[in-house]
Amino acid sequence: MSQPYTVQDEISLPGFAGTVHLPGEASYEELRRSLNPRVDARPALVAEAYGVADLRGALLAARQHGVPFAVQATGHGTHEACDGGVLVRTSPMASVLVDPDRRIARVGPGALWGEVVAAAAPFGLAPLSGSSPSVGVTGYTLGGGLGWLARKHGFAADSVVRAEVLLADGRHVVASADSHPELFWALRGGGGGFGVVTSLEFRLHPVERVFSGFAYFPIEAAAETLTAYRSWIEDAPDEISTAVVLRRMPDDAPEAVRGRHVVMVKVVHAGEAEEARRLLAPLWRAAGPALLDETRPSTYAATSMGGTPNRHMDMFETVPDEVIGTLVRAAEHAQTVEIRHWGGAMARPGQDAGPVSHRGTKLSVIVDTVVPGLAEELRPYANGGTFLNFLADPARTAAAFASGDFRRLREVKRAYDPDGFFRVGHVAR
């Protein structure tokens, strides 16, 4: 039998089979960190879990000692420190199983999107994955999941068919349309404040090849490109997902754009290359001759679009000239300003869809730098919403949901976690 791990004779994890990392150890310093530079967590310990029994043991120990409890796979979605508490890393629980006949994937809580994409690709299937293969599947999906196939197939949360969940009292339950349906509804976009998801099952889609990549144009065409983009998206079919990015290119970029300030168009088209080029031609004409065009046919598995770190986000139904002018000016102070097209299947949820809200949004703006005055300039034109995956402030969780959905989320929270044990990060308080 395993011996209990003890931290300062206060927190013990009896029977814990995983590895525990304590303050002062190099591994603790590495594993306590998130990818959010503003979060400098100092948990009492970091525990690497190898199975449900480990997760339950860590959870019950945190309950017994009255300390915070948090789960972290990659740290992409960590927005609040678990100071003095039990931080569980689920990276060892990274199983990925694909059922090609049912077009279903089942993953553990430590699985990454790159692993799911690779497992599904031999069958000509694709998940509704995010911008980076290194992002954790579970946290991304619980927060909604806006991927580059979302205009065609919806949010990642919409594809979930089943979840196994460790509740605050240590019970392990199955959430699906037929079992704990209110919990199942909440998990599909309501975040992770209802329990620890120990496995997730979701639909895969028949997408093998795409037309994807980046094209770069002179920054002097920024206003003209955004004006054209505003009109172009009105007729864009669901198969094509795009973003216009105003970006200062790094010194390790290709020579044609190295160190330059550019307009970058990002595109993923779930269709033929010839059709994609025809659709994109008006944008290319508005932006002017390309400095560099890296768009090309590719497998979905080889497509990695990258993301923009979020220091500011707004959502819009349209972008009037005033907003375009503001974004062009903001790009003079920021490394990256990304304007992304939403709509399509995201705006057409099924009757049983989860609480992902603001589905009518047409465009989002993400800026990777705090630009003084930007929020105030954009506020009169934005729709006031935000998206849970992109929201860094847990005090604003309610802004990610329609008011009725948030009330319902709070009811589910009271039913499944009545004493508010899960309180670190985005929680329906």
From TrEMBL:
Which InterPro entries does its entry note? Answer: BBE, FAD-bd_PCMH, FAD-bd_PCMH-like_sf, FAD-bd_PCMH_sub1, FAD-bd_PCMH_sub2, FAD-linked_Oxidoreductase, Oxid_FAD_bind_N
Q: Which family does it belong to?
A: Belongs to the oxygen-dependent FAD-linked oxidoreductase family.
Instruction: Identify the cofactor(s).
Output: FAD
Q: Which SUPFAM superfamilies match?
A: FAD-binding/transporter-associated domain-like
Q: Which UniProt keywords apply?
A: FAD, Flavoprotein, Oxidoreductase
Residue stretches making up the FAD-binding PCMH-type domain = 39-207
Q: What is this protein called?
A: FAD/FMN-containing dehydrogenase
